[in-house]
Amino acid sequence: MVLPLSQPHFSGALLLLVVSNLLLWEKASAIPACMAQKSGCWNPLVETFNSAMQTAGTLRTLADQFYVELYHNQFSSGQFLIFNSNLIRRDETVARAGTYCHSTLSNPPDRGTEHADAETEKYLKTLINYVGAWIGPLYHVVIELNVMQDVPETILSKVRQIEENKRKLLEDLRWILTKVYPTAEMKEEFPAWEHLSFLKSQGKHYKLLAMFNLSNCIYNETYHILFYLRELKCQITGEDC
Length: 241
Hints:
This protein has about 240 residues and is mostly helical.
């Protein structure tokens, strides 16, 4: 039987269609999932860094407000002015409270160094301990403020908000560590706050001295946290360098 002249043409067209579909499928499968979204690439790691930086910015604002409130509210302003006066006179106890913080940060790792990845992992762990170091003290300050007399709601609410945002930031940092370094072993070591005994004492003077220490340290550390988060985001994600 003689085949119609159109059959080879039909078979060739069908073959071309199959091959074309296969090529399209291979091309589609090669596109990263994030590029296939209409809104563009969504990177959970970058978004978590953004969340952490937003929380750190909120902490910066709250720390400013808390610091100002303690110096202007009748509940604490008089004693804080005395602390500053004693600080100038180099009163040893007040100087310790006004200048020493129980948690510190080293310099971030240099970009592009030979062991940059290992240094970045180590520094991320250090930042976790740095942020977590004040959660315990803040928790105790909230407890003490709740039982002290004539505590303004503005002061109490600020401490609560700072504690909540500290916990939120800590969770973001923990997630980043497990995402970037899934096999990393993390030992969280939050140093003891030496002014806890002052906070737990009976005298208002010593309780406020503990808050003097906390407010100064929280006020200063929020600047550092924002800076180091930007550095880590750049080194880990390559974004916003």
